[in-house]
Design goal:
Layout lengths: L1 H21 L1 H18 L3
């Protein structure tokens, strides 16, 4: 169980580093803004 958790943590860190290098903060912010707008435009 612990081994799986540490493997997942390592994988998450690798993905975050990969995304950070390839996408950058501007890209992530654009995606986040898009999600926020979509959530806001949804009818209640």
């Amino acid at each position: 169980m612990f081994a799986w958790a540490s493997i997942c943590q390592c994988r998450n860190a690798a993905w975050q580093r990969l995304l950070g290098e390839n996408v950058g903060n501007a890209g992530l912010r654009t995606v986040w803004d898009g999600l926020q707008k979509r959530a806001r435009s949804k009818p209640d």
